Amino acid sequence: MGKILISYYSKNKGNNEILAKLVSTLKSSDLERIETKKNKGIGSIALSSLIGIGSKIKPPKHNPMDYDALLLVSPIYMGNIPLPAINYLKFFNRKVPKVYFLSLCGSELTTNKPVMSIKKAAGKTPEKVLVLPIKNLCDIRENPKDIMNFRASEQIIRDSKEFTRLRDFIDTIK
Q1: Cα–Cα distances in Å, from 103 out to 18, 20, 65, 66, 130?
Q2: What is d(CA 37, CA 39) in angstroms, rounded to the nearest whole number?
Q3: pLDDT tens-digit series, residues 59-70
Q4: Sign of dihedral through CA atoms 41, 44, 50, 52?
Q5: Domain 4-171 fold
Q6: 48 and which of 54, 127, 135, 174 could share a cystine (Cβ 3.0–4.6 Å)?
Q7: pLDDT at 52 over 80
Q8: Model pTM greater than 0.90?
Q9: What is the rounded CA–CA span in Å between residue 34 and residue 66?
Q10: Cα–Cα distance between 2 and 14 in angstroms, integer?
Q11: CB-count exposure of residue 119 (10 Å: 0-12, 13-18, 19+)
Q12: Model pLDDT for residues 95-128, shown as the tens digit of each residue
């Protein structure tokens, strides 16, 4: 098993932070929180992701090139990866190892935008992508308000029908 860095972007100890920490425990991997220089609200982050400007990040503590693989964990807002996560990849001037992408988000992935954004920023297509829709972790239907208010826990993820898919996904990261 190679050395893996898990870098994640998540607002305010959000669902993807919980997911990244769980995967870090399961894979015994280093963990890097992607932080913005200015604290912005989710609406501002989503808008900057749509228009592609703003959301400068703090310098990362780990260099992905010191690892065999990078797992990027991030939400998806309106089909886009938040700009702080993209700017993290750009920070390393396309010098990153194998890249994998994982997201806990509101619905199934219906666009190729996240993959294309990673390819453009990192200079390579992700080896594998897994998107876990919130509705598959609990009894929430596709009610946008319920999905936005959902807060994951490690136990909810472990108890969900998605946990087997998550385990299979992280077992492919090398």
Answers
A1: 11, 9, 22, 23, 6
A2: 7
A3: 999 999 999 999
A4: negative
A5: Rossmann fold (3.40.50)
A6: 54
A7: no
A8: no
A9: 17
A10: 28
A11: middle
A12: 889 999 999 988 777 778 899 999 999 999 999 9
